[in-house]
Design a protein that fits this description.
- The structure is a single chain.
- It contains 14 helices and eight strands.
- By secondary structure, the protein is α+β, with helices and mostly antiparallel strands.
- It folds into two domains: 5-215, Endonuclease III, domain 1, CATH 1.10.340; 227-358, Nucleoside Triphosphate Pyrophosphohydrolase.
- The strands form two sheets. Strands 1, 4, 5, 6 and 7 form a five-stranded mixed β-sheet that branches. A three-stranded antiparallel β-sheet has the order 3-2-8, with no helix packed on it.
- A hairpin with a 4-residue loop joins strand 6 and strand 7 (304-314).
- Helix 1 packs across helix 11 (174-187).
- The chain binds iron/sulfur cluster.
- Iron/sulfur cluster (SF4) is lined by residues 141, 144-145, 188-189, 194, 196, 199, 201-202, 205, 207-208, 213.
Amino acid sequence: MTPDSRNLLTWYQNSRREMPWRQTRDPYRIWLSEVMLQQTRVDQALPYYHRFTERFPDVRALADADLDDVLRMWEGLGYYSRARNLHKAARQIVERHGGKFPPNYDEALALQGIGPYSASAVLSIAYNKPHAAVDGNVTRVISRLFAIGDDVRKSSVQKEIRDRADALLDRAKPGDFNQALMELGATICTPVRPKCPDCPWQQECIAYQTESTSRYPFKSPAKKRPHHHIAVGVVMDDSGRYLIARRPDEAMLGGLWEFPGGKQEHNEPLSQTVRRELHEELGIVVSVDEEPFEVIRHAYSHFTITLHAFFAKMDKASGAPAAQNGEPLRWVEPDELTEYAFPKANRRITDTLVKYRTS
Ligand code: SF4
């Protein structure tokens, strides 16, 4: 039996959660919400969405903004390439499409950071275009509905899931259908203990009917993530300002600010890592405390780190710091640290510095 989209749409009408981006057909706000909700839960994204739309109410406002401002509004959401891409795409929309999100699929796909999922979601919801949007939630539902037992990371399986979603799509109401399917995955067809008795497609679902929901979606075990030790130096000048450096745009966490430092090499003492990195990166000689004043563990999607923060003192004879990669450096008053966007682990260091100051 093929699942009937009408059952899903009726369920969605009665059960959907109200969200600000569901009360608008404005493609900019729908696009923004879709970008924020990638890798982020709704309750976490909501305050960011409100702050962001207040500050940048439309595509033009976002395109006109400085990247630093955009990153600052994004700080805490993580996956900063999303914010950089959003900003760049806003500029492309202004330049190429007069400030209006393009209703054409290929033109949408040509924008920075817009993949098949985002293009389909925005076009179906804002413009009622018949494109099925497949995210992690939809992948889970479809793999269970049709008992797809192969690894969902395989491109052939992803294609099968997209084809299945496309065949199910309600062509009269593609936006509602896509949102309904994502909502089903988020609230009913959850990763563990799905609430199958409440599901509008329980009759058609092969996994439910064969009591095998826990088998889907199948993912082969992930490789262990590597772990790195990073040591950074907190250098203060005679006026009590801290030295911070901007990360290159093309690097991971590009455009964010950080305390200078780098990866430990060959098990060298971590204080030596700071001395070496600051000399290599900024051309300065520093003396470094033996022990870090803060140690932070943090996980990224492909690796984990332990960040060791040391107080360091600059030898004035080594001259003014200058970043070898040409990126800007700033000496910043402690009170100004909140005005710069930092990655999460570095933000913990600025919080500690502010605490030291007020205690
Ligand atoms: S019946 Fe259960 S496993 Fe199947 S789609 Fe519905 S919630 Fe998911």
